[in-house]
Amino acid sequence: MSVEHGIPQDQRLRDQWNGLVCQMERPEVFYTCEWAIAVHRAYHSSLKPLLLLAYEGDALAGVVALATDAAGKQLSFLAGSTADYCDFICHPQHRAEFVEGVFGELARLHLPTLRLANLPADSATSRTLKGAAEKHGYLVFSRPAYRCAQITLGAPAERQKVKESVVKRKAFRSCLKGLERTGLVTVDHLTQWNVVRANLPRFVEAHVARFRAGGRASNLASAERQDFLSALAELLSGAGWLVLTRLLAGDEPVAWNYGFQFAGSWFYYQPTFDARWRQFSPGFCLLTKMVEQACDNPEIHLLDLGLGEESYKDRFASVYRQTLHATITDSRAARLRETVRYHAAAAVKSSPRLEHWVRRLVGRASAENVKL
Questions:
Q1: How far is the C-alpha of 250 from the C-alpha of 165, rounded, in Å?
Q2: Is the pLDDT of residue 364 over 70?
């Protein structure tokens, strides 16, 4: 097992890394070397990469991109706060061996805690994680995280049925008519870096303004997040995987999706819309148009709506993909704390009256802290 405290600028490594991604049971753009490089560029001040690589001769056989916290004691996926799915990258048949090798290396490095966010429940990793960790003295607590809505696209007849079901909705046709008062409604897809770069500021501005209008803070208000999306767009557009989709009413862009097309999947990663057009639901119209176009494109087999269980996604979804959050630790007390915390939170959430009481208690405590 080779250990790197960074992401080497090595084209051969990048090619072999991405070759392994294509061997995964479900290849994802989040697993690519480009994604890891973009995270490292944008978050280098807060995340310290720990790259573990397994080789068979000169050929890369497995890679996992982790990151340490400031104290260097706790580990996570390097892409854990940016990627909708994270995993150990190697052929599924070699996953158990590779995962066990990783835990052996972590034990040798005396790293006590590993928190894995957004691990797909259907991954071969999730089936081997507990056994591999326990062989090296680690304990595992795994819990459900997100349920990701997806639209699967199969035979032509099935695609036509999906297409008709979304474009014939009364709400869509009504909103579309409202937008058409300004001009012809069209959708375009920006894929070249120089064009994407020119349009990113407008996308960011709309996202921040939309959240502010709702009394919330956009993650794009963060300079690091903006740097990440810019670096990622540059890297992925070079590989042909980035798609910045816009919905236009006349010449005016009213909704966007910063997304990806990779291995037959079109990803609905970070959408937004111009809040001034809210009455016409431009975000809903854009997603409907994306579904329509995906149905007409035989190269697209899946439209993934990603993390977040917003209710509007249920109107489109045909299947769901579950992700997990796993805490791996060498401390029985730490695992017990994680277990108790999770089940206590689940109990509170299952009881509206108890949840209301807890929220009032937390709010009252926060108010007291402010006074102090």
A1: 26
A2: no
Of 6, 84, 87, 2, the C-alpha closest to 43 is: 6
Overall average pLDDT of the 320-334 stretch: 90
At 354 the pLDDT is: 56
Paired tokens of 168: 């014939």
Over residues 235-245, mean pLDDT: 97
Task: Report all structural domains of the chain as residue ranges with CATH numbers, in order of start.
Answer: 2-146+322-330 (3.40.630.30), 154-300 (3.40.630.30)
Longest alpha-carbon distance in the chain: 66
Length, in residues, of the chain: 372
Q: How far is CA 356 from CA 95, 338, 348, in A?
A: 44, 23, 9
How far apart CA 229 and CA 218 sit, in angstroms, is: 14
Q: Say what the pLDDT of residue 366 is.
A: 38
Q: At what angle do helices 223-239 and 33-43 cross, to 10 degrees?
A: 150
More confident residue, 135 or 339: 135
Query: Could you give the dihedral angle defined by the CA atoms of residues 280, 282, 288 and 290, in that order, rounded to the nearest 10 degrees?
Result: 160
Q: Could you write out the three-class secondary structure of 22-87?
A: HHCCCCCHHHCHHHHHHHHHHHCCCCEEEEEEEEECCEEEEEEEEEECCCCCEEEECCCCCCCCCC
Residue 28's φ and ψ, nearest 5 degrees, are: -135, 145
Question: How does pLDDT run across 76-133, given as a tens digit for each residue?
Answer: 999 999 999 999 999 999 999 999 999 999 999 999 899 999 999 999 999 999 999 9
| 147 within 8 A of 320, measured Cβ to Cβ | yes
Condensed to tens digits (0 to 9), the pLDDT of residues 193-228 reads 999 999 999 999 999 999 999 999 999 999 999 999
Share the mean pLDDT of the chain. Answer: 92
The Cα 63–Cα 257 span in angstroms is: 30
Best CA proximity match to 169, nearest among 289, 299, 89: 289
d(CA 322, CA 301): 19
Q: Are 319 and 145 spatial neighbours (Cβ–Cβ below 8 Å)?
A: no
φ, ψ of residue 291 to 5 degrees: the values are -60, -45
C-alpha span between 155 and 328 (Å, rounded): 42
